[in-house]
Amino acid sequence: MLFCDIGNTTYHFFDGKNSYKESIKSFDPSSITQEVFFICVVPDILQKLQHLQNWKNLEVCIDRKKYYDTMGIDRIVACEAIDNGVIIDAGSAITVDVVKNSEFVGGFIYPGVTFMQKTYKNISKLLDYKFNFEVNLSKLPKTSKDAVSYGYLKGFYLEVTSYNIPVVLTGGDAELIHQLLPDATIDENLLFRSMKKLQKVCFAR
Amino acid sequence: MLFCDIGNTTYHFFDGKNSYKESIKSFDPSSITQEVFFICVVPDILQKLQHLQNWKNLEVCIDRKKYYDTMGIDRIVACEAIDNGVIIDAGSAITVDVVKNSEFVGGFIYPGVTFMQKTYKNISKLLDYKFNFEVNLSKLPKTSKDAVSYGYLKGFYLEVTSYNIPVVLTGGDAELIHQLLPDATIDENLLFRSMKKLQKVCFAR
């Protein structure tokens, strides 16, 4: 049995012990014959997977009424993992979702590190810097590199810390965001643990 | 006599009364025979203009020691325009600079509206929304459109309002940012006024 979280850039697999990624562009899901329990935020791939009987969509296990219509299934499954806290899933996008007493309060979507770096570069090659996640946020910057890092990180930091509740970090860039939010907990397998729980409850035989 | 602010996407001209824009890609600066006092943040174009005698760079009038080495000349000229306040220049990039007692305190760079909208779209076509500048920032969103608008605007809003000093808006997207910061003043010709002042002091005959 495999678990798979399909995001905008990768198929992220979990075999119960280890996780590994395959590129969204080159990977062929029909190359797998095992049973795969998945979630997917990419409409084209979702359609493709409907024709593969061993790929089982965990979305059917979700009570969607607790969330909102167009909310990504990855965000929903992350919220199902905790009772209280902020979940920051840092991938292509950084999604920030707040759960209180097992209720989804709301959330927002911020561009992920790689996409945002590209954005600055596209605006001007003079802004093509690698972000400094340890930039001093208590003082307005006086270098271009810090002006870009501060622009990306300061408001995000102010918003997330304003909730005053524990933060859980997951996703490929969790380590980077951890430099910004050292009090947060990293939980790489948050989504997979939640998927496993859903699978147990809903596909039990 | 003309003034010209050359940014990453346009030549922005001012003839003393009216302003108009030409695309950076198609406009040929040698087509102008009048005297043009300019500032420019695009290195390639700056090099080209060095060979045109009627194009006079206002950067020579600036005491760069008051600022930092790689700071864009447009930001510097904007800062020269005021004694106290926050200047938000909303173009391809949104630059935010704080001036106190005619001293540059520091500033940061945030992606402009158009570039940021493209960024969300590039992450996923499901995030391809036009920003809602009147999104409710006092409550975490429960729709994707608001989740994206809130992601772009909330932290930025928190940061800028934290200074508690008057905000001046300029640049092509000043009207949009004004919806977010209704207490700010729009000053479309801030840069040109500052350029005019510099020209008078420094190129006086």
Topology:
2 copies of one chain form a homodimer.
Chain A: E1 2-6, E2 10-14, E3 19-23, E4 36-40, H1 43-49, E5 55-57, H2 73-79, E6 85-90, E7 93-100, E8 103-111, H3 113-123, H4 144-161, E9 167-170, H5 174-180, E10 185-186, H6 190-202
Parallel strand pairs in A: 1-4, 4-5, 6-9, 9-10
Antiparallel strand pairs in A: 1-2, 2-3, 6-7, 7-8
Characteristic key phrases:
205 residues, alpha/beta, 6 helices, five-stranded mixed beta sheet, homodimer, 2 domains, 25% strand, Nucleotidyltransferase, domain 5
Structure description:
Chain A is α/β, with parallel strands linked by helices and 205 residues long. Chain A folds into two domains: 2-81 and 192-202, ATPase, nucleotide binding domain (Nucleotidyltransferase, domain 5); 85-188, 2-Layer Sandwich (Nucleotidyltransferase, domain 5). Helices cover 31% and strands 25% of the residues of chain A. Chain A is built from six helices and ten strands. Chain A has helices at residues 43-49, 73-79, 113-123, 144-161, 174-180, 190-202; strands at 2-6, 10-14, 19-23, 36-40, 55-57, 85-90, 93-100, 103-111, 167-170, 185-186. In chain A, the strands form two sheets. Chain A has a five-stranded mixed sheet with strand order 3-2-1-4-5, with helices on both faces. In chain A, strands 8-7-6-9-10 form a five-stranded mixed sheet, sandwiched between helices. The longest helix of chain A has 18 residues, at 144-161. The two termini of chain A are 14 Å apart. The interface between A and B is large, with 50 and 50 residues.
